[in-house]
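S1.2 Input.
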Amino acid sequence: MRNYFENDYTSFRFHDDVLHIIYHQGTSIDLNAAIQIVKDRLTLQEGQSLPILCDVRGIKEINKAARSYLALEGSTLIKALAVIVDPPVSKIMWDFYIRTSNPPIPNKSCESMDEALTFLKKFI
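S1.3 Output.
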């Protein structure tokens, strides 16, 4: 399995059986971007269901179509999702996403890497 990959929107890295997804600073996510991000993630996972740590602090904006896609199709092969947010902006954005999209996987917003990894450990 490949350990690192980067596309126009994110970088992907495996560490201690968790896939870390870090959005690039100032990234705007539309439906096409969301489709590419999920496609690249699934390719990297090679059919394995994994816990995901996702750092969304770099996202500048994300449209409704992208949020909907990520909530449903984007949940494929994810055991649990910990999202690192930077209050107040990305925390507000994440809370809105959860309320409106209701993803079908365990998820938690976190303010630190340690908090996120503690949440994900029970899903490894």
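S1.4 Remarks. The chain has one domain: 4-121.
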